[in-house]
Amino acid sequence: MTLTILGFCPDTGQLGGAVTTSDLAVGARVLFAQARVAVVATQHRTDPRLGPAVLAAVKDGSTVSEAVRSVTVATPHRSWRQLGAVDAAGNAAAYSGDRLWPVGAELAGENCLALGNMLSNDRVAPAMVQAFGSGPVELAERLLTALEVGVGAGGETGELRSAALLIVERESFPLVDLRIDDFDSPVPRLRWLWAAYRPLARQFVARAIDPDHVPDPDHAQRSSSTTT
User: Fold this and answer.
1) In terms of Cα–Cα distance, which of 61, 3, 64 is closest to 39?
2) C-alpha dihedral, 26 to 51 to 31 to 145, nearest 10°
3) Alpha carbon 213 to chain centroid distance?
4) CA-CA distance, 21 to 162, in Å (whole number)?
């Protein structure tokens, strides 16, 4: 009961994913990413341990296909799991267990991967991959657009409740990590949250790595008001 798009941007090196589900707090359990390594989705009877395991395997030198395969083989309840990843070269790999609730999907496109389970039809994943490939240049926009198109194509069978957007670029922390944990229309709400966060994303990174050279909005406002 989860719908996910993973993607890589060769222009910026960004890796990221967007996801929605009828369950609670999907952003806390499904998406994992490491800059210059890979982005991973672990879903369907979700085991959050699998995301970091795939990242570790890719970082240690495995291809993304080898990483997904080795983690899957080592997982005792693999028949329940759905796992997918895109690496920092745009290569994709996925696994879906034989107890995956139909309709399930795993479909790779150029620099992207669509994953889903308990989907309403088999047109959802192709629509997402096509939307990602023809979407705006910015990775966050392409991911959100693909997710919106997937929902519009039928999405999953349940009433959507949560959604998330995760993007990494260069730092050890995410460039974007936005979550709608419990909302009646989580994907439009995620779009709204991204629109609010987007102008501040670079400033939040600068505050962490170079705080001495980040203007203080409150200070600037106080200075301006003092001189007027």
Assistant:
1) 64
2) -130
3) 31
4) 6
Q: What share of the chain is helix, strand, coil (3-state, %, to 5)?
A: 40, 25, 35
Secondary structure E strands in the chain: 2-8, 15-21, 31-34, 38-43, 82-87, 92-96, 105-109, 112-117, 162-168, 176-180
pTM score > 0.90 for this model?
A: yes
Residue 110's nearest CA partner among 123, 128, 95 is 128
10-residue averages of pLDDT along the chain (228 residues): 95 97 97 98 96 98 98 96 98 95 92 96 96 89 97 94 98 98 97 97 94 72 39
224/222 Cα distance (integer angstroms) = 5
Q: Say which CATH architecture domain 2-227 belongs to.
A: 4-Layer Sandwich (3.60)
Q: Residue 215 half-sphere exposure, CB side, CA atoms within 13 Å?
A: 7
